[in-house]
Structure formats: C-alpha cells, structure tokens
Amino acid sequence: MSEKKPFFRMNFGAVKLALMLIVIFGALAVIGLDIAILAGAIVTSVPEVAWASLAASVLVAVAAFIVLVASGYRFDDECMYVLLGIFKDEIPYENITGLKRNADSGIFYVVMGEGEDGIGMRIEIPRAKDEDFVKELRKHLPTIPVETFILPKKKDKN
What is the pLDDT of residues 103-151, one digit of tens each? Predict the structure, then answer.
C-alpha cells in the first residue's frame, strides 16, 4: 500500500470563500427554478431554455464546489503540486530556492530562482498548518532557507 501524500488545503480567506458560496448557492437556486419550469410548476413561453440553463447551472455548481474542496498543495517525491480544483501545476524541488514569510501577515512565499530573477508564489494555507507545511517542505529540501521579511511602510502623501 502506498503512503498517503500530505495535502494542505488552500485557504481562500473570508471574502473569496463567501463569493464561492454565493456562486454555488446561486447556481443551486437556478437549478431549482429550472426544475420547476421543466416540471410545469412555473409557466414560461420558452421552457426549452430551462434545459440549457439547467446544464450550465449544474456545471457551474460542480466546478465551484470542486475548486472549493480540492484546492491546495501536495508533496510527493519529485515535486510540490499546486492544485486548483482539477487543475494541477507542479514545481520540481530543484526549482525551489527559498521560503519567505511576511512578518506582518504571516503569509509564506515559495521562491524559485535567485536574486532579481527569482519569483515568489504565495502560499494560501490556514495559519494552524504553517509549521506542518515547513516541515513537509524540509523533508524534501532539508537545507532550504526560511526567511522572514518586513515590507517597508508606505509613505504618507501629506
């Protein structure tokens, strides 16, 4: 039996979560209306449109639900994967050069490349999982530097 790969669920934040839930429940409401139209409980001049609307609403609800529950970060022997619903990007460990954490927000960034050529990818995980994420990354990259940075304060324009 193969070992279960660690998975860190993506933390969308309150606003994005609320928007995703609005999309899901809105699609479910449209599905309900379409079913009522198709059942004859609601009379309309073009009931055929309800079939297309029903299909589109089911697709939207399912896609939004998949993104909500199946988005996150997974580690295996060769790569770190970034999952957004059914879409998967892989980051080979040899491309990861560092891990940085914003001291103010606590948000992590996986750094790929060096100096000004390096890019950072924001890691959206719940705060309670921060240490587990670092431990898991260190299993694959034991010498990865983990740095904390402070953004400069914005100057007051007055």
Answer: 888 889 999 987 777 788 999 999 899 999 999 999 999 999 888 988 8
* Residue range 33-80, pLDDT digits in tens: 999 999 988 888 888 899 999 999 999 999 999 999 999 999 999 999
Q: 93-149 — its CATH code?
A: 3.30.720
**Helix, strand and coil in the chain, % to nearest 5:** 45, 25, 30
**150 DSSP assignment:** -
Q: Which residue bears the tokens 């898991």?
A: 136
Say what the pTM is. 0.80
The partner residues of 102 in beta bridges, in order of sequence, read: 149
Pick from 137, 120, 135: nearest CA to 81: 137
Instruction: Decide: 73 and 8 in contact? Cβ < 8 Å.
Output: yes
Q: Where in the chain are the domains?
A: 93-149
